[in-house]
Design brief:
Length: about 150
């Protein structure tokens, strides 16, 4: 599914916001455990399951916390579960469902939604790498990395 020009423009604006305007600390007020990922690795299922026991972010990203590019303004009290997976599987899952342009924006790429497919894949690879590096700076007591295959 190829986004319309208006949808692409909206996605570009989302990418700008995600890259330069981090979530406020208040955005995390209803969350004890943040479960997030680059996308395409079963995060929704894990959020729904953990939500039975603890306060987690919204499974369908209504709160904008499911695919954060960086941990800016994350309170120290919030525990984090970062779900990862093999890049090719992530990319294929996003492409198959028509989510790749939107995911590029959610990961902070203002121009990602405008890229042709091959360049979009390369951009996604760089964004996923940058996301993991940014979140790896959290103390090990605050973050747990879980591979999709381990779920």
């Amino acid at each position: 599914m190829d986004p319309t020009p208006l949808r692409r423009a909206r996605l570009c604006l989302r990418g700008l916001r995600r890259r330069y305007l981090p979530k406020s600390e208040a955005a995390f007020s209803q969350v004890d455990v943040l479960v997030f990922s680059p996308g395409g690795v079963g995060t929704t299922l894990l959020i729904q399951e953990l939500g039975r026991y603890v306060r987690v972010n919204r499974p369908h990203d209504r709160d904008g916390l499911k695919h954060l590019p960086t941990p800016r303004n994350l309170p120290a009290r919030v525990k984090v579960v970062f779900v990862t997976g093999a890049f090719d599987s992530v990319c294929q899952s996003l492409e198959r469902r028509g989510f790749l342009p939107g995911q590029l924006a959610k990961l902070g790429s203002p121009l990602g939604p405008l890229l042709p497919k091959a360049r979009a894949r390369a951009a996604l690879r760089a964004l996923v790498k940058r996301q993991k590096q940014a979140w790896s700076r959290l103390p090990p007591s605050q973050i747990l990395f879980v591979d999709y295959d381990e779920l």
